[in-house]
Amino acid sequence: MPKQTSSRTAITSAISGLVLGAALLTQPIAAVAGSVVTLWHTEPNPKTVGVMKEIIADYEKLNPGVKVNQEPIPWGDLDQKMQAALAAGAPPDASHGQAYVERSLSAKGLLLPIDEVVESIGADDIWDVVKKLNYHDVGQGDHYYGLAHAIGTDVHIIRKDYYRKAGISVTEPPKTWDEWLAQLKKLTVDTNGDGKIDVYGLGLAGPGFFINEEVYMWVGSNGGRLFDPNGRPTLTEKPVIEMLEFFKEVSDCCLAPDWLSHGYLDTFAMLATGKVASILGWGRGTGYFEKYAPDVVANRDIGVMPGKPVGPSGKAFLTQLDCEPWMIFKDGKNPQGAIDFLKFFYQPDNYRKYIQTVPIHFFPIRKSVQKDPKYLATPDLGTWKFWVDAQKNIIGNHDPKPLFITEWDDLDLPFVQEVASSGIMVEMVTDVVEGRLSAADSAAKAQKRTEKLITQLGYKKW
């Protein structure tokens, strides 16, 4: 999700879901009367905030004198706020962040283990991919330093009516970038004969966070990675240069001329209103389609592809795994209170109600909740079952990875957070698509800048 700041120390995370639902426990969770728990999240949509208020109210009833404050923060504001809080030594008690942010902060000793929360759930009830992300050693043995609030995947979303009109399959994704580019060109059309393009083949979000998404997914789909095993950037290697050349081709032929100014929700609006034939995005967009394009939804003309194309140097596609973990800050005013609250949050009824606020984007990390009849009866899971099935297939069979992670061991690199938030990758792309530099020259420039940044941070090991 969304955003990029230019500061090297910015926290490129976004806190995605928060505590919600309502269900009473038979035994209160231990909490200190008179204490305050501060939680940050980036789920300001009214439905999620409303459920969150319910679960907070239930928790406070069970723990008289305890106050839980939740602060919904827009994606575009979280990084600066988190950066300032950490610099001042005054972080919240709990927050969400990208997987690489959790690894970076835990390695710096800023987070507390949350093994208690996992134990309250039961490790066997948690999806293996979630445990793989958050269970690791920062010098004190293996512990959980985060726990995903939910998981989901980025998918290729299409207007099936436009695809059918162009004679393109609505069920079989293109296998290669060349095939995809040919399809996007067919989908980019002047519909009224006035000499101007009315529908573009693809819509992408331009703010830096989203360009970071495309960079790592497309490099990974082209058989490349962003760092070698020693942590040295690999930006001058063939897979990256081919990615930049492909980005330029797509931008020139099949993206709106002003795509760099489009926000994430803009791309959903463009697909809903027929200004683009496809986008890359997440399941939370289903509500947007239902609100702004009910006829398109009723006609079942929104679809998702079960996979993505592979570049000329690649063998398998890479897509993003959304898996932002809850993190507990050691320097928060009440970190133990936050741990107690998360135990309550993850209890089945509370957690199910939270998941149901964004049910196509949020997959439960608890296996038992995935099988819960009340969860399975969620109305959206009927309407959008094909979307859910596509994500489950990707998670189960195609090894999606977190933002900026092309290989799982990249999570152990201590500088990924700083590189991701530096703006270097964004400038590498925009220099090419706007014609300032060739792919090779832009990659060389980015390589130098990234090597310099890692060296300045004290992490150079090559």
Structural domain tally: 2
**Approximate shape:** globular
Fold-level CATH name of the largest domain? D-Maltodextrin-Binding Protein, domain 2
Number of strands: 12
Task: Give the strand line-up of the largest sheet.
Answer: 3-12-6
Largest sheet: 3 strands, antiparallel
Average pLDDT level: 90
Give me the number of helical elements: 21
Rg (CA only): 22 Å
Residue stretches low in confidence (pLDDT < 50, at least 5 long) are 1-30
User: Which range does the strand content fall in?
Assistant: 5-15%
CATH top level class name of the largest domain: Alpha Beta
Helicity range of the residues?
Answer: 40-55%
In terms of structural class, how would the helical and strand content be classed?
mainly alpha
CATH architecture of the largest domain: 3-Layer(aba) Sandwich
Q: What would CATH call the homologous superfamily of the largest domain?
A: Periplasmic binding protein-like II
Distance from first to last alpha carbon:
32 Å
Any chance you could write out the topology, listing elements then pairs?
Elements: E1 36-41, H1 46-62, E2 67-72, H2 75-87, E3 94-96, H3 99-107, H4 115-121, H5 128-134, E4 135-137, E5 142-144, E6 147-148, E7 152-153, E8 155-159, H6 160-165, H7 177-187, H8 208-220, H9 238-254, H10 264-272, E9 278-281, H11 285-292, H12 294-298, E10 302-304, E11 321-322, E12 325-328, H13 335-345, H14 348-355, H15 367-370, H16 373-376, H17 379-383, H18 385-397, H19 416-420, H20 424-433, H21 439-456
Write up this protein:
The protein is mainly α. It folds into two domains: 36-151 and 323-397, Periplasmic binding protein-like II (D-Maltodextrin-Binding Protein, domain 2, 3-Layer(aba) Sandwich); 155-319 and 423-456, Periplasmic binding protein-like II (D-Maltodextrin-Binding Protein, domain 2). The chain contains 21 helices and twelve strands. The chain has helices at 46-62, 75-87, 99-107, 115-121, 128-134, 160-165, 177-187, 208-220, 238-254, 264-272, 285-292, 294-298, 335-345, 348-355, 367-370, 373-376, 379-383, 385-397, 416-420, 424-433, 439-456; strands spanning 36-41, 67-72, 94-96, 135-137, 142-144, 147-148, 152-153, 155-159, 278-281, 302-304, 321-322, 325-328. α1 (46-62) links the parallel β1 (36-41) and β2. α9 (238-254) packs across α20 (424-433), α10 (264-272) packs across α11 (285-292) and α20 (424-433) runs antiparallel to α21 (439-456). It is globular and about 70 Å long. The two termini are 32 Å apart. Residues 1-30 have low confidence and may be disordered.
